Every structure is written in C-alpha cells, then in structure tokens.
Please model this.
Amino acid sequence: MSLLECAVILLAGVAAGTINTVVGSGTLITFPTLLAFGVPPVTANVSNTLGLVPGSVSGAIGYRAHLTGQRTRILRLVVATLVGSAIGATLLLVLPSSAFKAIVPVLILVGLLLVVLGPRISARAAAAADGSAPDAPWVPPAVLGAGVYGGYFGAAQGVIVLGIFGAGVHESLQRQNAVKNVVVASSNSLAAVIFTFSGHMDWLIVALLAVGAATGGQIGARVGQKLPPNVLRAVIVVVGLVALVSFLL
Model:
C-alpha cells in the first residue's frame, strides 16, 4: 500500500468517525475507499468494522453528558445489540454477501421513516401516559435486529437505531443520539472481536482507520451537540437517503 493510499484511508477514517457520531453511515465512505484500492470485500468489511470501533467509542465519550440518568436503558439495549451483533457477525462469515442485499435498502427506508415520524409517535405515546411514557416494549427486540444487521455489515446502522429510538424512546434527540453511539460502539466492538479470529483482518488498514475514526469521533461529538433537533434530524435524513441510493445503484 502506497503512502498516498494510507493517507486517503486515514482521512476516510476521520470522515467516517465524524459522520458516525453525528448520524451513522460512515462505512459508506470507508468501505468503498478500501474496495477502490483493491482490498477484497470480506477483508475490507472486517477491517473496517474493527478500525471504526475507536471512533464509536470516542463519539460515545464525547456525548457522555447526555448519558446521565440512562444507565438502565443503556444496559438493556447494549445486551440486545450484543446478541444481535454476534448473530450478524457469524452470518457474515458463513453466508454469501448477497444474502442481505435485498433487505438493506428496506431497513434504511424504515429507519428514515421512523426518524421523520418518530417524534409524533413518541409524543402521542407520552401524552397517553401523562407525559411519562416508558420506552416501548418493542425497542430492545428492534435494537437486537439492528444489531444483527450491524454485525453483518453496519452501514447506516446508526440511522436505523435512531429511527427506532425516535419512535419508541421518550427522550430528546440528543439524548437518543448519545445512547445510539454507545449501542453502535458495543455492536461494532463485539463483531470486531469475532472478526479478529477470521483470518481476514488487514492490521495496517485497521490502524489507519482507528486513528482517523477516533479523531473524527471527537469532531462529530462537538458538532453534533450544537445542532438543533430539526437540523440534526434533517442531517440524518439526508445521510440516510444517500445511503439508500448508494445501495440501490
């Protein structure tokens, strides 16, 4: 790998770490970049998953102020996403890559619809419960499903998780985003551990992405927390639509 290619991968990691912290879908930058440099798809996928973990952790740390009072919710959802991620990572190693291709656009579209309609759904549920509605009971199973997808590939996982939270978790968008960062970081971390033993890992790529993504995570945390809810929601929708189009083309 040339010095120029290393620099491009490092910068792609910065961009992915930033986008993942604010929204999700950073993989749509790094994965195609790796493929363009001739990295085999499975190697690109597993190396990308591990390389972006520091970015997810960095973003979660940057959002830590919004995690206050959400410990029980976080533990419940992390357990769900870890189970799903283990299933998804295992499927990646045993199934052909075409297995999930048809459902990925559907999942992204559902996530976007939930991001847009979620506040109304959540507000109605909260009003019906005198403004103090608990999380919807279907949220953990839905997060488990998103974890399966995240362990398998992961692009736009953040959009899907935020869509789930928007419809079923009665918190501000910033607090939802903070939990999303923890959930996605947990999902990617477990998948990365499983992939480490697959024999497909390219450690130079992992190192470059890790440094870039960790930097991007801090950038994303600073930018994301300054965005008003409607602006952040608009960013989520735009990124999700780009992800959707990229999968359909």
Residues 3-248 form one domain. The CA atoms of residues 41 and 65 lie 37 Å apart.
